[in-house]
Design a protein that fits this description.
Elements (H helix, E strand, L loop, with lengths): L35 E4 L5 E3 L7 H10 L6 E3 L6 E3 L2 H11 L41 H16 L58 H9 L1 H4 L20 H13 L13 H4 L16 E5 L6 E6 L6 E5 L3 E4 L2 E2 L6 E6 L8 E5 L2 E5 L6 H12 L13 E4 L2 H6 L1 E6 L4 E6 L5 E6 L8 E5 L4 E3 L11 E4 L5 E5 L3 E6 L4 E7 L5 E6 L5 E6 L4 E5 L8 E3 L6 E6 L5 E6 L3 E8 L9 E9 L9 E6 L6 E5 L4 E4 L1
């Protein structure tokens, strides 16, 4: 029979085994990797209960076990304990902020030990201590130190606080003699509008409003600019006080307070002053200005030009054959892409790219001793004892080709689109087209008839290559980048970002520290190699694609030819002072070529010594501007 209230009989001590854990107040995580969780009073291990329940078993137990809500886990023993009703009530009381003991009354009357009445006998009759009658030596030492500090001035008394409000003039410290002085920059307060007929106490009848108009004025004061309606009184003494007088005065004070105290002077800037001051073109002479000669004779577009180092002879070529002299043709029987005259004045050779070959042509022009020495140089070649494997094949010209001026033929595996000479005249480089392999660029040595491939892998479609005029550098221009290689160290020195979609041509300044690149998206990029890998300046003077760019060897001039049929000559001064940027000024737009098949100027070239420029176009003409 259970006791009243549903309470179970108390469990006697000894009915259950003593499983109290004796490990003490330590973190129970220390026993996380052990099979036991502590020790009982007898020193035996208390093993952890076997727990192999997963999340599904725990969920099912939560749903099916009605006592799941009152089951807790004992961290000391690891066992599940079911809370009794007394323990649940204790938890509920603690959660509500009540006392744990049910029988504790927090509102019992307090015993007042001390009252306001003076009693005869004290609460405690303990005699006073002896130290209460003797002065403190420690306090005496502290006081003496404070008195000494005050005498020496180390401790100063606090200044009394001044509670009076401080008002000051915001513009009191301004210099009255300055240009922006207050007396010169004074802004007077705006005057109030004078009252009119509608503000009279006895206005004319036409100023009086009907009831609907008065209601509209009071409901929408922003439409009329006032929040009152004209009224009529029999005399001035019958006029009542204005209800919005204080409000309007406050608004006017706020308007005056927020009024700016300095006059804003409007700056009148001439737009011409914002444009950088460039020198006038007439101060930058000489440069080509007029068309002097037109060389005719080609029947189709003239693709390339080249001039001798002396500036006396000009060679031009079209897709089928080059023009050696103005009165002589040279039949080659193939598509011609590039012509390059040897820059060495002691060697008379012209490199011509025809289909898959590079022809070394001896034009036999000028001094007989000069071109005789060129033949002796070519004939003095001695073949090596062992044949070396080369990426190209060197072939000596036949008797028929020798009579035309051809001395050597360098046969490539792909069509050659560009030929360029080194400054000393012994090496030349060739670039092939439509080939994405590492054989796009080859470097040849004429005296030893030796060719080599300088690159192991391809970096993109090569558009043009050039030798540095002074240093052992080699420039390779792909579609969007220009890479500079050191031929001695055989490493990449610098990579230039052109910010162009497709590079078409490239030229190097005679000083070697600046280059220009033309692109098919009508941009000309000037690079300062000592400044940055990005363009120093992008020129967008042409309306169509740029086909060719060129530098003058002695004058500060560079030119660009485009499909719009024009040649733009610019002044490009490079200073010896490294801290001064180059000066780029367009000086002249040269016109004359006729647009043919949507093509204009295909190549531009400067005279070696004179400020003249040659241009070849799709109209089959070569023009000289002086």
């Amino acid at each position: 029979m259970e006791p009243r209230g549903g309470m179970k009989p108390p469990v006697r001590w000894g009915q259950l085994p003593d499983i109290r854990n004796t490990v003490g107040n330590i973190p129970m995580e220390w026993y996380q990797d052990f099979p036991h969780i502590g020790y009982n009073l007898e020193g035996k291990k208390i093993y952890k209960p076997i727990r192999n329940k997963d999340e599904l078993d725990m969920f099912l137990e939560k749903m099916e076990n009605p006592d799941y809500w009152r089951t807790v886990q004992d961290k000391m023993t690891g066992a599940d304990i079911k809370l009794t009703d007394e323990q649940v009530d204790l938890v509920h009381r603690l959660q509500k902020g009540q006392f744990g003991d049910v029988h504790f009354n927090p509102y019992e009357p307090a015993v007042d030990f001390f009252t306001h009445e003076v009693m005869i006998h004290p609460v405690t009759n303990r005699p006073a201590d002896k130290r209460s009658f003797i002065p403190s030596l420690i306090e005496k030492e502290k006081v003496s130190k404070l008195v000494h500090a005050i005498k020496m001035g180390w401790i100063k008394p606090r200044k009394p606080k001044d509670d009076t409000p401080t008002y000051y003039d915001l513009w009191a410290h301004e210099d009255p003699n300055s240009i922006l002085g207050r007396h010169k920059m004074h802004v007077p307060a705006p005057k109030m509008k004078l009252p009119g007929h509608e503000e009279s106490y006895n206005p004319p009848p036409e100023y009086l409003l009907s009831e609907e108009e008065v209601r509209g004025v009071l409901e929408r004061p922003g439409d009329t600019g006032r929040c009152w309606a004209p009224q009529q009184y029999r005399c001035l003494r019958a006029v009542p006080a204005y209800s919005r007088f204080i409000h309007e005065r406050l608004e006017r004070c706020l308007d005056l307070y927020l009024c700016p105290r300095q006059r804003k002077m409007r700056v009148n800037v001439d737009p011409e002053d914002l444009i950088p001051k460039l020198p006038k073109p007439r101060d930058l002479q000489p440069f080509p200005t007029t068309q002097a000669l037109v060389y005719r004779g080609h029947t189709s577009l003239v693709r390339c030009l080249s001039i001798s180092p002396s500036g006396q002879w000009l060679v031009s070529g079209k897709d089928s054959l080059p023009r050696r002299r103005i009165t002589e043709w040279l039949e080659l029987g193939g598509a011609l892409k590039a012509i390059a005259w040897n820059p060495n004045p002691t060697v008379c050779l012209v490199a011509i790219s025809v289909e898959q070959s590079v022809l070394l042509l001896h034009p036999c022009l000028g001094d007989k001793l000069l071109y005789g020495a060129t033949d002796q140089l070519l004939e003095s070649y001695v073949a090596p004892e062992e044949e070396r494997v080369q990426p190209v094949q060197w072939v000596t010209a036949t008797m028929e080709e020798h009579s035309k001026g051809i001395r050597l033929v360098v046969q490539h595996s792909k069509a050659v689109k560009q030929v360029t000479w080194h400054g000393k005249g012994d090496y030349f480089a060739s670039a092939v087209s439509s080939d994405n392999s590492n054989m796009q660029v080859l470097i040849h040595q004429t005296s030893k008839r030796w060719s080599q491939n300088p690159f192991r892998k391809s970096k993109g479609l090569v558009q043009c290559v050039l030798f540095h005029p002074i240093r052992p550098y080699f420039f390779v221009a792909t579609q969007r980048y220009v890479r500079i290689y050191n031929l001695l160290k055989q490493e990449l020195t610098k990579k230039l970002m052109t910010n162009c979609k497709w590079v078409s041509s490239m030229a190097i300044h005679p000083g070697g520290d600046n280059i220009i690149c033309g692109s098919y998206d009508s941009k000309l990029a000037w690079f300062d190699l000592d400044l940055s890998t990005r363009p120093y300046q992008l020129l967008r003077h042409h309306k169509k694609a740029l086909r060719s760019v060129a530098f003058h060897k002695h004058y500060p001039l560079f030119a660009s030819g485009s499909d719009d049929g024009t040649v733009i000559v610019c002044h490009g001064m490079v200073y010896n002072d490294l801290l001064q940027n180059p000066l780029l000024v367009p000086v002249k737009v040269l016109k004359g070529h006729v647009m043919t098949l949507d093509l204009g100027v295909l190549d531009v070239l400067f005279h070696p010594t004179q400020p003249w420029v040659f241009s070849s176009g799709a109209d089959g003409t070569v023009r000289l501007y002086t």
